[in-house]
Each structure stands twice: as C-alpha cells, then as structure tokens.
C-alpha cells in the first residue's frame, strides 16, 4: 500500500538542491541517446510508473522525429495520468497513457515488445526482492537488443551494485551508469543481449512500499 502523495512528489523537480532535476537531465540524456542511435527507425517505448511522463515527453518535445515513437505510459494516479495525456497531446508521437497497475504484466499487453523500457522512480520504492524479480521479468517487455533505463538512489545500503549485477544475470549489458556528484541519485542503462522472453500474462512483479 503506497502512502506517498505522488503528485506533490513531482514538485521536487523544480526545487533547487533536490537532485531530481539533475536526475531528470541524466534520464533524458539516455532517452535522447537511444533515439539518436535508432533513428530513423520506428521505435516502441513503455514507461512503468510513468508519473507525468516528463522524462520521455520532454525529450520528444525537442525532437523533430518524435512521430516515429509509439509509447505506452502506465501510471496509477489520475492527476498524473491527466497531466501526461495533456503533454502527450501536443506531440506528433503516438503516446497512450493508461491508468493501470504497472506492476502487473497485463498492463503491457499490446504495447510490447518495446525497444526502450523506462523503469524510473520504481527501484527506491519497492523491496530488494521485488527489484530483483522485476529485473528478471523485464526481458518480457523487450524487443531484441532493447534498452532499459532505470533509476535508484544510492542511500545506504547502496543497492546499485546488486542491481547492476542482477541486470547482467538477466542477460543485459551495461551501457551507462551515472551517479550524481554529492547526491544520491543514479541512472542506469542496460541493453538486452540475451533472447527476449514472451510476455507472461497475469503476473505481479512488485509492490510499492512507500
Ligand atoms: C517516484 S514516482 C516516479 C515517476 C516518474 N517515473 C519519474 O521518474 O518522474 C513513482 C510513480 O509511480 C506511481 N505508481 C506507484 N505504484 C504504481 C503502480 N502499481 N502502477 C502504476 N504506477 C504506480 C506513482 O503514482 C508515481 O507517479
């Protein structure tokens, strides 16, 4: 059961010193690099627990080739879903924002296999066991050589060394890891090098504990 007001949580993006603005820059840089390296091919993106979608939508708003992107954003909070839909409506990309439980595999049916999977703002809010289970399952969302961009704070005990090892165990190679200087945020990017897996329906991968 989550107790956090996630709409207010987003206010920290504009609060100097929160680190969230710097983390956003790092996430957007990974998304932009992905779009640059895959251009001009059409690409599919899924974002789990997408919030107001400002990471992906902010990048698409700056790109002339946004129309080649088809995306599904999955978010539970109605206000954040509305904000994401409003931002997406201004873009030529094909963005669907669904109000659904992103921990359930069924939320992705019809939107995968994706070339880019965003897992941002999740790993700090679920148990370590669920982080591991989600990493084990993420190949079910992936097209061949898909990339996954994820975030996790590095507060003690720092889970990021384990997360990076778990991605390797699950058949991913690391293509980036950025840790905020003097801050605890970090952003990782991994590419699937093993075979993708078929989406298994009716599975639950994580539970928010905050
Ligand atoms: C830390 S915020 C991250 C938002 C966004 N990904 C970002 O990085 O700015 C976590 C988000 O997950 C959403 N959330 C929590 N549990 C969820 C669930 N089971 N399914 C979908 N969204 C969920 C919250 O409403 C919140 O918007």
UniProtKB/TrEMBL annotation:
Keywords: Methyltransferase, Transferase
Domain of life from the UniProt record: Bacteria
GO terms, molecular function: methyltransferase activity
One GO-annotated biological process of the protein: methylation
InterPro entries membership: SAM-dependent_MTases_sf (IPR029063)
Protein's name according to its UniProt entry: Class I SAM-dependent methyltransferase
Species of origin: Luteipulveratus flavus
